[in-house]
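thread: overnight batch results

M.L. [08:02]
morning all. the overnight job finished for the chain we discussed friday. pasting input first so we're all looking at the same thing
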Amino acid sequence: MQKTRYIFITGGVSSSLGKGVTVAALGTLLESRGYSVSLQKMDPYINVDPGTMSPYQHGEVYVTDDGAETDLDLGYYERFTNSKLSRKNSVSTGQIYYSVIERERKGDYLGRTVQVVPHITNEIRNRIYTLSRENETDFVIVEIGGTVGDIESVPFLEAIRQMRYEHGASQVMFIHLTLVPTIHAAGEAKTKPTQHSVKELLALGIQPDILICRIQKNMTKEMRNKISLFCNVKDENVISAVDIANSIYEIPQMYKDEKLDEVVLKTLGMDLRKINFSKWESLVKIIRTSKKKVKIALIGKYISLQDAYRSIYEAISHGGIANEANVEVIKLNPEDLDKNNIKDALKGIHGILVPGGFGERGIEGKVAAIHYARTKKIPFLGICLGMQCAVIEFARNELGYKDANSTEFNPKSEHPVISMIEEQMEIEQMGGTMRLGGYPCRILKGSIAFQEYKSEKISERHRHRFEFTLRYKEEFEKKGMKLTGFSPDQNLVEIVEVPSHPWFIGVQFHPEFQSKPTQPHPLFVGLVRESLKLVKKGEE
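M.L. [08:03]
and the structure it wrote out:
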């Protein structure tokens, strides 16, 4: 049986260079050549997971099917590849130390002194080996979070150095992603930061096999030679990663043109199998040639940070690709919206999406926007809290319950149309205790959801504590809001719709977590399709 190859991707000079997308793109290319891959993120923070971290701190929390709250980079991994991810694909310093300390408390170390080397590094290596043991994949590609030089990353770098020493260069590869900044006053790109970054790695015992250089324009031959000479990396192993103008889904094509996958396979002594890249080429062609344009408003309180709704933005773009349209997302802060200015704020908008979130801030602005979408017949998709706000809006304006609310925001409301799930009421700890991961849902035939999914049985991922209060079911349905999706036991409402509206749907789950550019989620395809109808209507 062929041994698993391990590819480690580190980052230097600056954060936010795109290690996650690079890992995902390399996975795409290797899968296109018929190899199987498993992808893993190692985060150096001491939090056990990002589940209790503010979106302003760390971007969105991505949820896997088995209910792990993970880093947003795992979203890229799943969107770009066929790899099925779980909590084992997301590792943090907090998890590593937590496991080691638990073992020490049980006496598993038989009285020995517990140290970073070997105990912490062994635990890190074990998390990596777990993937290859369980999945028997050709490649395990691991992203080491943070930037080389950060003190937090040192145990991870030491662990992968040990793996290279143990298995050799034919089984363990190091790729270093770095920045070649352009000094605008001088009008030239500078390689010195990359040289220093590689020296930082060398000081830790790691010699990169491949350098991927983020740069504004393609490197000259002289620049490539200089980096090669000073960093001990072959010329052909210095890869240029030029800034992409249109879409991140062009990045696999860029790396293919740079022969990244070929260099990886050659360096590891693997067969250069025939590539089947037609699906991605078709995708890129649609992105570059689409002429139709549509505006969709995203109304969420975290819009100031792009990564806070990363999966939402990507899923909307997937809906655009499926409809061969360019979607312009108009970001609106709900705290700036009210019933007096909502008409002006949403002028020229063809669709409205209210995403998930927590806390009372901005709720009234979301309710005002949803009321406008419902009464003005604008296509609407509410996700998690967005669905709950749609329920609150309907109760206030159609059922006449002016104080209708969620017990999350007003525990004393006379009409708590949204309330905490019963099993959540006794929970005191915050981390990892919500309704998390994939759950089945039954859809009513003839509903909007059924038309989009074309199935009565679906499974979607959740991350919430509050639900529709079931005792209001008959009142809502009598007034025109239909409950069209339920948990199999019928106790939890998953989908609400307004049949008198062209396309108005709220879902308790997070459909954005299962959308891919090559397999767009049906609800986002539907939102863009219906929004385009409004564009056409406005043009007539």
